Amino acid sequence: MVDPALVGRNVGRRQTEMKEKKEELKTRLENFRLSNPDVKHVRILVAGQIGAGKSSFINSVDSAFQGEIVCEAQADNLQSAASHSFTKRLTAYRIRNADADLPFEICDVMGLEPQKISECQPDDIVKTIYGHVREGYKFSEDNPLPSDDEHYNETPSLSDQAFCLVYVIDANTIHLSADNKIFIEKLRIIRQKISDNGIPQVIVMTKVDEACPLVSKDLRKIYTSKIIKERMEICKSIVGVPMTSIFPVKNYHDEIDTDDDVDVLILKAFDQIQLLCDQDAAVQHVRFFRNPLCFCKRSIQSESCWENRNTWPWMMFAIGV
Q1: CATH of region 13-310, choose from 3.40.50.300, 2.60.120.10, 3.40.190.10, 3.40.525.10
Q2: Neighbours of 130 (CB within 10 A)
Q3: Looking at the predicted structure, is the pLDDT value of residue 15 above 70?
Q4: Number of C-alpha atoms within 13 angstroms, CB side, residue 280?
Q5: Is the dihedral angle over the CA atoms 146, 152, 158, 164 positive or is it negative?
Q6: How far apart are the C-alpha atoms of 136 and 238, rounded to whole Å?
Q7: Does pLDDT of 7 surpass 70?
Q8: What is the rounded CA–CA span in Å between residue 26 and residue 102?
Q9: pTM attached to this predicted model
Q10: Which helix (H) or strand (E) holds 237?
Q11: pLDDT tens by residue, 172-206
């Protein structure tokens, strides 16, 4: 018979370890300083499936830092979200902790519509990455942003550009999306247009608790779940990013309090994202001073940013596995 006192001590130890891990991640991110003096803040662009949880991911990052549930980015929880994007305009959200703004800004864009093969939306997302789209621009599936529009930024600064593209993908439906040729083609268009310029790209795979019953009962089982690993493999195949750049997370959805297990997954993903962003910003700083007239024309980036990332998602930490 299992000793209840021993079980209680183990549970308490695991909770303490997770809390310590969370505080370690928070402290590192809160003390983050940009290596590029020309960049005011790290700008991150989130794109992906409709209803995958882009806005919820932004809220979850904010919640993890502030220690309470935050709903700054409006998310649609209705059934209509499966076919129509709730986010229509480019909106930038500054991440903050309980005391002050942090040097991170996440830009939310319209979800990729699965019904139409038009390249207008992918083109606008690419323009946003390069800083040519001003906040408040309303995305359209039919007409891309023209260069004479008031929301078109002809000469973006380094701070206007995104230093990482985050694809937010639903773990619960990605196996179905694998047969959606329109969705896959849009991802291919975006990836093709930015890959040669060395822009870091990662996947935040959401709704892991809905995809796997084991993870739904215990979020720490995420690292031993065959289903989650299979969904990560599908993401890798569809988007083309390595497994080291795929981060399974659970967003806050209808909770009223934060949870250390959820926060650690969110903060670990965000920690890796900001690392890639800072490396890319440093590369852009060097290019700018070598050729100031071409700093907006991002040249091919070294693969070193990937080589330096030796943390595989399944080996982030082994607490409770």
Answers
A1: 3.40.50.300
A2: 19
A3: yes
A4: 29
A5: negative
A6: 30
A7: no
A8: 11
A9: 0.82
A10: helix 226-239
A11: 988 877 667 888 888 888 988 888 788 999 999 99
